[in-house]
Amino acid sequence: MTLDVLDSGKPARIVAVDWAGLAEDEGKRLKALGVDEGAEIAVVHRGVFGGRDPLALRLGNMTIAIRRIHARAIEVEAA
């Protein structure tokens, strides 16, 4: 499943990232934040308007925000 459909609060592990589906600068930003295969991640909050953007993610000790379109490029499996 992709990260954009992961239930809030459920821990997961990133199994693949479609780097080709992301703009180069967006991919670099996500890698710099630690978004990569093997990382433990969880959705902690979703936006309330329209497309429910952005998604707040717990990644290690950090909380980061990404857009749903970026979350669709991240494949996860439940931990």
From TrEMBL:
Keywords: Iron. SUPFAM superfamilies: C-terminal domain of transcriptional repressors. Residues 1-78 form the Ferrous iron transporter FeoA-like domain. It comes from Qipengyuania aquimaris. The lineage of its organism: Bacteria, Pseudomonadati, Pseudomonadota, Alphaproteobacteria, Sphingomonadales. GO terms for molecular function: transition metal ion binding. This is Ferrous iron transport protein A. Pfam families: FeoA.
